[in-house]
Amino acid sequence: MSKIKKGRIVRGTVSGIESYGVFVSCDDYYTGLIHISEISHGFVKNITDFVKIGDLIFVEILDVDEELGHLKLSIKDIEYKKNIVVKRKKIKETSLGFKTLEYKLPIWIEESLKKIKK
Fold first, then answer.
1. Per-residue model confidence as pLDDT tens digits over 32-53
2. Distance, CA of 51 to CA of 80 (rounded, Å)
3. Do the Cβ atoms of 69 and 57 come closer than 8 Å?
4. Which value, in Å, is the radius of gyration of the alpha carbons in the chain?
5. Residues 6+ apart with CB under 8 A from 2
């Protein structure tokens, strides 16, 4: 079941800012626009007072174009900048450590040199 449906609130990343609105990437397929009229109930003089490129924000989905993967979005009536905690995967160290790299590096160098000489 897709989390992208009209009325849902999803997390996205601000990917662009123009004078008329904010572009948001919601996942690998869906991108959307928050029109300047959907940013605040009051007058919006400068969009960068609300968001910056790269910000992780919550957005409300107003409309979905499944064919194009485009969304009409809003942050007007939601807490769009709630504390977003991005869980990072912990890197597990193997018992081999750098041994694999130590073994493979000369092989990779030799293969690359052969390709260059061809």
1. 999 999 999 999 999 999 999 9
2. 10
3. no
4. 22
5. none
